[in-house]
């Protein structure tokens, strides 16, 4: 199973959920070692392709201006003696913006006032023209009356008087127009003076408003910065804590991995020491029975990567595992006390939480083809996946001791901890707490061709 994971570099989520923290850490170490190995092979294979080559012609290049020292010329704003500080630059920009806004407002007011003065001047001209036209009409009527009812001399005298009055009226009209123009120019001058004062005053008001808004924004930004700083410090503490936990877990995984290697080597040396005439020859592997070969061939040929449902697990156990005597006590031939059926992780934890430290049970996993030892630790329940193979049974991982049966594995770890860092010893087995027991479906008689006939 481990070789398949390292080959595909993928882990099934159901398999990962069945692994304990130590087994997950060991699996991570092995995957990381495989990644480093593949990377080194790739680097060695493609090292000739990394020779720098000349850039092709026609491509655009970026060149930097160089200083006297031959390095890239860099101008940092605010560091030169002639540069303004950021506060001065911001204040100057606000002044310019306030002045432009005040000029825009004053220009709008000036256009409105000029339009109003022009309208009044036009109305005054129209009024004066109307009065002049009315006087001319009266003089014309008087002249006509004089010509009809008076003598020639009187008519001439009347015409002369009318002409003098007409000239006098025209002169008065010119004087009034000139006075009106002078008054309009004076009003315009006073309006411009007032607008200039208003512009300066309005510019100062806008500048003050901008500065107040800037101070408020700076206060809000400072408060937000303090909140972000506190949040960042809290996240940094959590990240450091998580990093320490990951480092501790990785350290324990390395220690566990080294200890498992050392323990495996010790067992191999012990076996080789007792194998004939003091030589280091390994003992011959016992021949496999025909039934084991057939079952192994059947597993490789027909069994999917993981069980599709619970019934598939039951069929697998009845066809391939039960003939080996899995789950039975070799001394009595009956079902072992620690053996349970296809139960879930939650059910196993419900059994163990009521028990003392060191209590354990062996359950058939419903997610992978194998078994899981559920162990009652000090702070929680741990679950260790047992991998099945043709050679026997072992904990998931590399360089693990292979046992010929689950009973041998259980007996071995009654005196040898499962992990060196955790020190898990299998002290007391948890038996069945209900009737019928949860393994009854695994122990039902098998229907064979002979019994069917």
Fill in the keyword field for this structure.
5-stranded mixed β-sheet; 453 residues; mainly alpha
Tell me about this structure.
This protein has 453 residues and is mainly α. It has helices at residues 2-8, 13-18, 21-45, 86-149, 152-273, 290-302, 310-321, 345-352, 406-412, 449-452; strands at residues 359-364, 370-376, 381-388, 393-395, 428-429. A 5-stranded mixed beta sheet has the order 4-3-2-1-5, covered by helices on one side. Strand 2 (370-376) and strand 3 (381-388) form a beta hairpin. It is rod-shaped. 15% of the residues are buried.
Topology:
Blueprint: H1 2-8, H2 13-18, H3 21-45, H4 86-149, H5 152-273, H6 290-302, H7 310-321, H8 345-352, E1 359-364, E2 370-376, E3 381-388, E4 393-395, H9 406-412, E5 428-429, H10 449-452
Parallel strand pairs: 1-5
Antiparallel strand pairs: 1-2, 2-3, 3-4
Helix pairs in contact: 3-5, 4-5
**Portion in beta strands:** 5-15%
Task: Look at the helices and sheets and give the structural class.
Answer: mainly alpha
N-C termini distance: 39 Å
Strand order in the sheet with the most strands: 4-3-2-1-5
Gyration radius over CA: 53 Å
Total beta strand runs? 5
Helix content: 55-70%
Query: What is the overall number of helices?
Result: 10
Uncertain stretches: 276-289, 292-301, 447-453
Averaged pLDDT: 77
Please provide a brief summary of the model:
It is built from ten helices and five strands; from the N terminus they run H-H-H-H-H-H-H-H-E-E-E-E-H-E-H. By secondary structure, the protein is mainly α. The chain is rod-shaped, with a radius of gyration of 53 Å.
């Amino acid at each position: 199973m481990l070789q398949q994971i390292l080959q595909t570099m993928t882990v099934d989520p159901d398999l990962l959920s069945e692994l304990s923290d130590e087994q997950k850490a060991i699996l991570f170490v092995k995957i990381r070692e495989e990644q480093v190995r593949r990377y080194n092979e790739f680097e060695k294979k493609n090292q000739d392709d990394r020779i720098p080559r000349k850039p092709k012609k026609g491509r655009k290049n970026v060149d930097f201006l160089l200083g006297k020292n031959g390095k890239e010329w860099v101008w940092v704003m605010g560091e030169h003696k002639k540069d303004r500080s950021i506060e001065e630059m911001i204040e100057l920009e606000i002044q310019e913006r306030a002045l432009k806004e005040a000029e825009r407002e004053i220009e709008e007011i000036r256009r409105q006032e000029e339009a109003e003065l022009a309208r009044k001047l036009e109305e005054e001209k129209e009024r004066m023209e109307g009065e002049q036209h009315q006087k001319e009409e009266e003089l014309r009527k008087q002249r006509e009356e004089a010509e009809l009812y008076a003598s020639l001399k009187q008519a001439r005298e009347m015409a002369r008087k009318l002409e003098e009055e007409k000239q006098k009226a025209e002169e008065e009209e010119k004087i009034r127009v000139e006075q009106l123009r002078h008054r309009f120019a004076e009003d315009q001058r006073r309006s411009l003076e007032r607008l200039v004062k208003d512009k300066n005053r309005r510019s100062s008001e806008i500048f003050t408003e901008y500065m107040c808004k800037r101070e408020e924004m700076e206060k809000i930004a400072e408060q937000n910065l303090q909140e972000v700083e506190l949040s960042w410090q809290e996240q940094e503490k959590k990240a450091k804590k998580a990093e320490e936990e990951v480092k501790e877990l990785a350290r324990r995984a390395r220690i566990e991995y080294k200890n498992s290697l050392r323990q495996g080597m010790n067992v191999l040396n012990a076996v080789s020491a007792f194998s004939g005439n003091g030589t280091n020859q390994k003992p011959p592997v016992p021949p496999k029975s025909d039934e084991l070969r057939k079952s192994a061939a059947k597993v490789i040929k027909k069994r999917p990567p993981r069980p599709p449902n619970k019934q598939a697990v039951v069929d697998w156990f009845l066809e391939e595992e039960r003939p080996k005597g899995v789950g039975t006590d070799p001394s009595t031939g009956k079902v072992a006390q620690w053996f349970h059926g296809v139960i879930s992780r939650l059910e196993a934890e419900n059994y163990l939480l009521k028990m003392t430290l060191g209590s354990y049970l062996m359950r058939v996993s419903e997610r992978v083809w194998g078994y899981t030892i559920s162990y009652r630790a000090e702070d929680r329940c741990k679950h260790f996946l047992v991998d099945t193979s043709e050679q026997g049974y072992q904990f998931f991982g590399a360089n693990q001791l292979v046992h010929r049966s689950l009973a041998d594995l259980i007996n071995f770890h009654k005196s040898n901890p499962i992990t060196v860092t955790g020190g898990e010893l299998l002290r007391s087995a948890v038996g069945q707490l209900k009737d019928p027991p949860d393994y009854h479906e695994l122990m039902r008689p098998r229907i064979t061709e002979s019994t069917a006939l």
